[in-house]
Specification:
The chain starts with 5 loop residues before the first helix and ends with a strand. It is built from five helices and ten strands; from the N terminus they run H-E-H-E-E-E-E-E-H-H-H-E-E-E-E. It is α+β, with helices and mostly antiparallel strands and about 280 residues long.
């Protein structure tokens, strides 16, 4: 079990960074193609779809500071958690107004909390980051981003019992997580984390059965499923990663509408829950 200097890690609470960008057109067209959408070419003033702000404010760490896993070395804005596995655990969003193509945009990020938990399967460190994204002087969206760092599994650790996905889906779409899909999304988000493209690394070093589908990509596919069935504006969205998906088999994104939104989820080939989400209009 890795020992962490909790006091040092919590000293990052309150740290901020501010980034500036512009809603350029090519990433919008490229993500639409990646998601197999038949959208018209983006034009000035078009509303950016929910979660597509992840195409902007991309990290630009020099190649020389990337760690063995492809991530920038720990430290800087995020605390230097020494645990080897880093995953996107979930997020919560409030949408105040749409971002629009050609908008100049600003993101102010704050480390809100750092917590450490010790369980029977090792140490977990949770980092909560709050992002506020504005267009001009107007707040467009607020995002709370949950990051989890963890120890690798130890020999003899019992596997986590899978949770069955709901069986009442009204909407559904089958996704083939090909290497090309994962490559395109990694390229669009300038994500060099090797678990998404380096099969030898992810299987031999991290011990997974295949390339891992990006958590943000799964969340984007869930909200894209919603957009394929309604054109109502999304007011809030929340998602939680439950178990990883791999490129070794197709998975499904599913949903059921309710009075003011929808319940959405991703299921692995065995019908077990991989991600769950809620959207309100």
């Amino acid at each position: 079990m890795t020992e962490l200097d909790v006091t040092n890690l919590r000293s990052w609470i309150g740290r901020q960074e501010t980034l500036h960008d512009q809603v350029t057109r090519f990433p919008v067209a490229a993500l639409a193609a990646t998601l197999d959408r038949d959208d018209r070419p983006p034009a000035a003033g078009d509303a950016l779809a929910p979660l597509w702000h992840w195409l902007y404010f991309l990290p630009t760490a020099p190649q020389s500071v990337l760690g063995p896993d492809g991530h920038p070395q720990r430290g800087g804005f995020l605390p230097p958690v020494p645990l080897p596995r880093r995953m996107w655990a979930g997020g919560r969003f409030t949408f105040h107004r749409p971002l629009r193509v050609d908008d100049p945009i600003t993101r102010t990020s704050t480390v809100q909390d750092v917590t450490v938990k010790h369980g029977r399967n090792g140490t977990l460190c949770f980092v909560l980051v709050r992002h506020e994204v504005s267009a001009g002087s107007e707040l467009a969206l607020v995002e709370e981003h949950d990051i989890v760092y963890r120890d690798p599994p130890r020999p003899g650790d019992p596997p986590v019992a899978p949770a069955p996905a709901p069986a009442d889906a009204v909407w559904g779409r089958r996704i083939q997580p090909s290497e090309a899909l994962l490559f395109r999304y990694s390229a669009l988000t300038f994500n060099s984390h090797r678990i998404h493209y380096d099969r030898r690394y992810v299987t031999e070093t991290e011990g997974y059965p295949g390339l891992i589908v990006h958590g943000p990509l799964i969340a984007t596919l869930l909200i894209d499923l919603l957009r394929r069935h309604t054109d109502r504006a999304v007011a809030t969205f929340r998602f939680r990663a439950v178990s990883p998906l791999f490129d070794t088999a197709p998975f499904s994104v599913l949903g059921v509408p309710n009075d003011n939104g929808a319940s959405l989820w991703a299921a692995n080939p065995d019908g077990n829950l991989a991600m769950q989400a809620e959207a309100t209009f």
